[in-house]
Input
Amino acid sequence: MAFMLRYRLFMWNNHTSRALPCLKTKHTAANLISKDKQALSALLLSANAVYADECTLNIDANDMMQFSTKTLSAPKSCKKVTVKLSHTGKLPANVMGHNWVLSTEQNMQGIITDGNAAGLSNQYLKPNDSRVLAATDIIGGGKTTEVTFNTSGLTAGTDYTYFCSFPGHYAMMKGTFTLK
Ligand SMILES: [Cu+2]
Output
């Protein structure tokens, strides 16, 4: 793969140097460079997919009951997605604990209601809740956690909901996850 990449980059350079003497205007040159840049970024993008970098997503949570982003997405080519959650605050898990839970929008409320009853010892989730598509543990300030899940059960282009199931937090800690 690395060899092919180098070979294709070599071909790209070669193509550029041969094409340049034929150029008539600066405008054309700019177009050509822009096109080649696009080709290069497409090449690098496909290399990333192979090495799965884009299949790992990072999100922070803090003592202000906030996630750092309200949208997360991964390429639909990811067979598995890893979400890494960092709690950048200082408060302990029983006071300001956070997790990252994925479900359909429709199922969120039921998961939260049952999660509240299940309590912190169950990560504020009903054990083996089939409505939960993915979930990390609850963590306190200064801690990190992650979850890796298969994307085979998800539909590309559909908006899923992620939230924190700690009692009351979903009102502020909620976002949209999409496979694109
Ligand atoms: Cu929370």
Remarks:
- The pocket of copper (II) ion is lined by residues 98, 164, 166, 169, 173 (CB under 6 Å).
- Residues 2-51 form one domain.
- The longest helix spans residues 26-51.
